[in-house]
C-alpha cells in the first residue's frame, strides 16, 4: 500500500504569499529577471519542502517500501539542480551545497543498510534554503 502524503497547506500558503509579495514589490523596484529568479527560488524551495516531507514519510515507512526514500532524495536533488542553475546568489548557493551534502549523507546511510537514517540535517538544510529564498 502506498504511504499517504501529508502536505502542510499553511507552509505552502505562506510561501506562496511571500512569493506573490516579492513579485509585486520586486516588479516595481527591479527588473523582471530578478523577480523571476526570486520566484523560481521560492517555488523550488517549496517543492523541496514537499520532497522533504515525502522523505520523512518514506523513512517512517521504510519497511513497507524502501525505494520511497531513494525517490524522495532524487526529487530533492533534481530541485536543487534547478536552483543552482538559476542563481548567482552566494547565500542560496551555500544553502544548496549544504542540502546536497545532507542528501548525499542520507543516501549513503541508506546504501550502507541504515533503514532509519537521521534526516535532521536534510530538514535543517531545507529550512535554511527556504529562509534564503524568502525575502
Question: What labels would you give this structure?
Answer:
mainly alpha, 135 residues, disordered N terminus, 79% helix
In short:
The chain has 135 residues and is mainly alpha-helical. It contains five helices and no strands. Residues 1-31 have low confidence and may be disordered.
List the helices and strands and how they pair.
Layout: H1 9-29, H2 32-60, H3 67-86, H4 90-111, H5 120-133
Helix pairs in contact: 1-2, 2-3, 2-5, 3-4, 4-5
Structure notes:
- The chain is mainly alpha-helical and 135 residues long.
- Helices cover 79% and strands 0% of the residues.
- The protein contains 5 helices and no strands.
- Mean pLDDT is 73; it is low at 1-31.
Overall strand count: 0
Binned, the helix content reads over 70%
Radius of gyration: 16 Å
- Globally, the shape reads elongated
Mean pLDDT: 73
Order of helices and strands: HHHHH
Low-confidence stretches: 1-31
Strand composition percent: under 5%
Amino acid at each position: 500500500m502506498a504511504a499517504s502524503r501529508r502536505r502542510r497547506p499553511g507552509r505552502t500558503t505562506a510561501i506562496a504569499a511571500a512569493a506573490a509579495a516579492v513579485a509585486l514589490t520586486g516588479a516595481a523596484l527591479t527588473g523582471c529577471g530578478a523577480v523571476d529568479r526570486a520566484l523560481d527560488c521560492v517555488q523550488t524551495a517549496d517543492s523541496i519542502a514537499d520532497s522533504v516531507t515525502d522523505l520523512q514519510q518514506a523513512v517512517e515507512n521504510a519497511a513497507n517500501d524502501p525505494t520511497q526514500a531513494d525517490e524522495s532524495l532524487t526529487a530533492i536533488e533534481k530541485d536543487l539542480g534547478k536552483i543552482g542553475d538559476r542563481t548567482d546568489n552566494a547565500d542560496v548557493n551555500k544553502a544548496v551545497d549544504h542540502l546536497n551534502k545532507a542528501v548525499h549523507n542520507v543516501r549513503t546511510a541508506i546504501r550502507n543498510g541504515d533503514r532509519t537514517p537521521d534526516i535532521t540535517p536534510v530538514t535543517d538544510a531545507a529550512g535554511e534554503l527556504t529562509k534564503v529564498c524568502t525575502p
